[in-house]
């Protein structure tokens, strides 16, 4: 919460070169299956939440942008590639998984279902395993050191001991 009790959200890209802060209520949260959102995210669909009614600040760096149509720009981290924004004339939406606490932003609608990939509705039916369940065939997991920016703001990134 901010001083005047407005909700505050933070997030950023995987490498930490780009960080954002949102003050105020988030708008509609959705997933979009359209072919452009598939390509822009390199994924089956793109989860986005509108921030058009809130105050958005880039607190470290800023996204690079690709103009994906005459109406929209797609923002992403130029250093690590994390998809970050969808920017249209009616406002900006941010990628939900880029938030520090994405679990509190649940989508309420699907768009672009004409392009929905045929297996997407069955992912949850697949067998599931923890990351470490694969350790016998991927021994590097035992010594894994993450270089991903943590899920909170930092004074300095990357930390000095690594740079
Ligand atoms: Zn990055
Ligand atoms: Zn889309």
TrEMBL record:
The keyword Lyase applies. Keywords: Lyase, Metal-binding, Zinc. InterPro entries: CENP-V/GFA, Mss4-like_sf. One of its GO terms (molecular function) is metal ion binding. Pfam families: GFA. Residues 9-112 form the CENP-V/GFA domain. Belongs to the Gfa family. This is Aldehyde-activating protein. The lineage of its organism: Bacteria, Pseudomonadati, Pseudomonadota, Alphaproteobacteria, Hyphomicrobiales.
């Amino acid at each position: 919460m901010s001083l005047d009790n407005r909700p505050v959200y933070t997030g950023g890209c995987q490498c930490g070169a780009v960080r954002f802060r949102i003050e105020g209520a988030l708008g509609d949260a959705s997933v979009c299956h359209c072919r452009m959102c598939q390509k822009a995210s390199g994924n089956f669909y793109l989860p986005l939440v509108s921030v058009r009614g809130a105050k958005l600040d880039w607190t470290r760096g800023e996204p690079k942008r690709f103009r994906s149509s005459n109406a929209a720009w797609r923002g992403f981290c130029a250093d690590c590639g994390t998809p970050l924004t969808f920017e249209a004339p009616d406002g900006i939406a941010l990628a939900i998984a880029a938030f520090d606490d994405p679990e509190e932003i649940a989508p309420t609608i699907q768009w672009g279902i004409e392009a929905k990939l045929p297996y997407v509705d069955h992912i949850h039916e697949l067998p599931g395993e923890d990351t470490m369940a694969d350790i016998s065939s991927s021994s590097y997991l035992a010594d894994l050191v993450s270089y991903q920016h943590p899920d909170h703001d930092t004074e300095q990134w990357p930390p000095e001991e690594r740079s």
